[in-house]
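FORM 7B: Structural annotation worksheet

SECTION A. Query
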Amino acid sequence: MRLKMAQNSLFAVLLRSSWWISLAVALVVVGASRALLPSDYWVFGAMGAFPFVVIAGIALVRQLRRPSERQVQAILERVRAMNWREFSQALDEAFTRDGCRVERLEGGAADLAVTRGGRTALVAARRWKAARHGEEGLAALHAQMRERDASECTYIALGELSANAQRFARTNNIKVLQEDGLVQLLRALPAR
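SECTION B. Predicted structure
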């Protein structure tokens, strides 16, 4: 069983925030322990800061690995200029680099079946350039996921999702990969 952190838990929010915020929380915990606990016991209270120091380290590493704004724009320009064959090849290479086995699918909402650690995710990416995405594509992907007994599904879209599509994705746990997520996935995309 794979454990997943709640999206709005304190640690999840701190992981998405700047690294120094977690470090500041750790310092506050240490300072409060020193000020409020007896001198023999304040060290035990200060140990409560350790998880925040770990979160600060993880957030720092993630932020150092994140591409710069210039790199983000260059990757997005490159992705928008690609045709389907180039884009699907780039996705295939990116998933393979991340340790997944990729199977191309024909006919249906999903374009790729990505397997890692015994879990299979169906990926719909063919309409990545569309300006607006509706619920239909997500519903077809979700139906194919249930039909193939896949673990999860991912919908790739550079354009915006309609309100109904966003609600459908949230309700059915469909991962929507838009600009930031796509840039992270394709971070090794060579410049032209």
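SECTION C. Observations
The chain has nine helices and seven strands. The mean pLDDT is 90.

SECTION D. Sign-off
Analyst initials: ____
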